[in-house]
Design goal:
Blueprint (H helix, E strand, L loop, with lengths): L19 E6 L15 E8 L3 E8 L4 E7 L12 H11 L11 H18 L7 H12 L13 E10 L3 H12 L4 E5 L10 E3 L3 H7 L7 H11 L6 H20 L5 E2 L9 H6 L1 E4 L21 E5 L7 H13 L3 E4 L1 E8 L5 E8 L5 E13 L8 H7 L1 H5 L3 E2 L19 H8 L9 E2 L14 E4 L12 H8 L7 E6 L2 H4 L12 E2 L16 E2 L10 E3 L2 H7 L4 H20 L20 E6 L3 E2 L2 E2 L9 E3 L10 E7 L19 H19 L2
Parallel strand pairs: 5-6, 5-14, 6-11, 8-9, 14-26, 15-23, 19-20
Antiparallel strand pairs: 1-2, 2-3, 3-4, 7-10, 9-10, 12-13, 13-14, 16-24, 17-18, 18-22, 21-22, 25-26
């Protein structure tokens, strides 16, 4: 099997993939200097990997006396912050042979190569590194690597079902399998289960009946929209089964938490005790008076809900309740354990998994699974090689990566959790990895959210229909000069908010100023008091000319900005956006000072969604060059963000909370199917 998989060969010739090295010696030996290991002086070398790293080293005759590592052109979360630490390690070691910094292996290798070049110069050696660089470039593009050889098994555990990953989906899979009578081992490399936030998409069912939303959206309409937003590179069967049946799993999920308070509106007043125990609210409910999703070019379907609480992990109260249900049924947790290698019998059935117990001297435990293994290992955003291969645009454009920063959880060794472990384990046994991964980069705007006020770029030009969802907003911002734009509005904004769409991240409700804020459930991003936005701007001026001056517009950019606003105001008065097609009901002229502007740049990537190809029963398939037939791999199931074929190309933003909802539903399905042998 070719381990050096690379479906984007064109990257080999770019700065994102190819590794080149340039060295420039600046050391000039002084007359009469004693000969030593080095020619005293200062030398620099540059290595180009994901970004560009420059190492500058100063030498005496026998020592490295100073090291500066410039990583300013690297990517946030992928080596940008580690320049000082690299320098300290080289200086302490008096060598380029230093340990890599975990999680930034590409930058580590670039620093090592540049440091070696500096040392070679100081020794008077020829710096001939082109062949080495080419070899390393190819190595860096090999996201998969070799399947590890396990030296020895220290312990064997026999169970029916092994679930690898105790995130939202893995917890649901463990509970569902245990309820089928299976003995279950739940493996997690963190110190505890892992979850955050709390929005869910759900159609129909008893909850929506209670809220008056039963049948408010046709399931086929939702499924077809999700297919279009993912350019038909996902699987309709997965989405259709979820749309028709997710409410069953959501009711099951909620039933684990009998103390939950179910509210009848988004901001229903609750007590602090209720909020501490956890509440569930319908989102955007009641709907804004002027919002009708059926008339929207980019609808946000009004059938979402949210778990809220005082916990840092927000929905953690209900996830923990589901984990406890699994434990009550006999499931056992193994925290601090890293899924390392899947096991198969001679017929290709997955029969278990080997894990590394990081909290017990890195002992290897072999879990034999009589019924099967469920991978619930999350996404791959914390691994730079996988990101460079499957989502190179995120790396190239230096999009802030929350997974790489550890904001989606860290393991017991202090590294980010979402590092594609399941992707690799599956691929090593021949499972097909989904093409066209979907970075979740929906923009949430600035102080005024993604509310569709006028947008200008740094050239003073209007460049889009502002009334589009956050994922599409991000795409447009990435195309602008310096990837920077300005959201501009005037003093009439409170009158305009009720006409704005009830989308993800925008304002569409005004709260009366005298409303009591002691309600723990007071805050919602779609709602605001006027006074709460008194300082939501980056710039404020009495006139547009003054505002443009603050934004730095001069020369042609200033003329463009003036013309853009004049044109926009004209279109508003005419009631038709002939330039970009924005809905006339959200076209408001900029005429009433003071005027405000919020600066926008690129957003953060929450996760990168793309896993092993799957189906509506959580199976995964063969798909290597040797076996492209997509045969089901028996004994292996996937759920959560390692379940491929749910999304592709872009994360769909038409239904708030769809990610969590699919994780719960297909965790439920995977657990039952694995235990039943489906």
């Amino acid at each position: 099997m070719n381990r050096n998989i690379n479906r984007r060969d064109f990257l080999k010739g770019t700065a994102a993939g190819a590794l080149g090295l340039a060295a420039a010696g600046m050391g000039v030996p002084a007359l009469g200097q004693e000969k030593g290991l080095y020619t005293p002086g200062t030398y620099s070398a540059t290595a180009t990997g994901m970004g560009e790293v420059t190492v500058t080293m100063t030498f005496s005759a026998n020592e490295i006396t100073d090291v500066v590592v410039d990583t300013s052109k690297e990517t946030t979360g992928y080596g940008l912050e580690q320049g000082g630490e690299f320098a300290q390690r080289i200086l302490a070691a008096q060598s380029a042979d230093i340990d890599a910094i975990s999680g930034v292996s590409l930058t580590s290798n670039s620093v090592t190569e540049a440091a070696k070049a500096c040392i070679a110069q100081a020794k008077g050696e020829t710096v001939d590194i082109a062949p080495v660089v080419q070899e390393q470039a190819q190595d860096q593009m090999d996201w998969l690597g070799e399947e590890p050889d396990i030296p020895a098994i220290d312990e064997t555990v026999d169970v029916d079902v092994v679930v690898v990953g105790a995130g939202l989906s893995g917890v649901c899979a463990a509970r569902a399998a245990a309820e089928e009578g299976a003995s279950v081992a739940l493996i997690e490399k963190g110190a505890s289960f892992n979850c955050r936030s709390g929005e869910y998409a759900v159609l129909n069912g008893p909850l929506n009946q209670r809220w008056g939303r039963e049948g408010i959206v046709d399931t086929d309409l939702v499924v077809n929209r999700l297919m279009r937003e993912c350019t038909y590179r996902n699987k309709r069967s997965i989405l259709k089964k979820w749309a028709d049946h997710a409410w069953e799993a959501i009711d099951w999920f909620i039933a684990a938490c009998p103390d939950i308070t179910i509210c009848d509106s988004t901001r229903q007043a609750v007590t602090q005790e209720q909020f501490d125990k956890g509440i569930l609210v319908p989102l955007s409910w009641p709907l804004p008076e002027h919002y009708d999703y059926t008339k929207e070019e980019f609808p946000t379907f009004p059938s979402s809900m949210e778990f809220r609480s005082s916990r840092k992990d927000q929905q953690g109260f209900v996830v923990e309740a589901n984990l406890n249900k699994a434990l009550e049924l006999g499931a056992k947790t193994y925290f601090g354990c890293f899924g390392t290698k899947l096991l198969q019998d001679e017929q290709g059935r997955v029969t278990g998994v080997i894990v590394r117990d990081a909290q017990n001297a890195n002992r290897y435990i072999q879990f034999n699974a009589a019924k099967g293994v469920i991978l619930a290992t999350g996404d791959n955003s914390g691994d730079p090689r996988i990101m460079a291969h499957f989502a190179p645009e995120i790396v190239e454009k230096k999009i802030t990566n929350m997974g790489a920063m550890g904001m989606l959880g860290v393991d017991v060794e202090g590294n980010p959790c979402p590092t594609g472990d399941g992707l690799r384990m599956g691929a090593w046994i021949g499972a097909k990895v989904q093409d066209f991964h979907a970075p979740m980069t929906h923009h949430m705007g600035g102080g005024m959210g993604v509310t569709p006020f006028l947008q200008l770029n740094k050239h003073g030009e209007r460049f889009m229909n502002e009334c589009i969802p956050g994922q599409q907003l991000e795409n447009q911002i990435e195309l602008q000069p310096d990837q920077t734009t300005y959201q501009i509005y005037d003093s009439k904004w409170p009158e305009q908010i009720p006409y704005m769409p009830a989308n993800h991240g925008g304002l569409c409700y005004i709260i009366p100023e005298d409303e009591d804020e002691s309600n723990p459930n007071f805050t919602d991003r779609q709602y605001t008091k006027v006074s709460a936005k008194a300082n939501a701007y980056n710039f404020k001026a009495d006139t547009l000319d003054e505002l443009f001056a603050q934004l730095g517009y001069t020369g042609q950019a200033l003329e463009n900005a003036k013309a853009s606003v004049e044109r926009y105001n004209q279109l508003c008065r005419e009631g038709y956006d002939a330039d970009f097609g924005k809905d006339a009901s959200r076209m408001f002229p900029l005429e009433n000072g003071p005027f405000y502007a919020c600066t926008w740049s690129t957003t953060s990537m929450l996760v990168c969604v793309g896993g092993l190809e799957s189906d509506e029963n959580c199976h995964t398939f063969t798909g290597t060059a040797e076996n492209p037939t997509r045969d089901i791999i028996p004994g292996l199931y996937v759920c959560g963000n390692v379940q491929g074929s749910r999304y592709a190309v872009e994360y769909p933003i038409c239904f708030r909370g769809i990610s969590h909802s699919l994780c719960v539903y297909y965790g439920y399905v995977a657990g039952k199917n694995c235990a039943q042998g489906v």
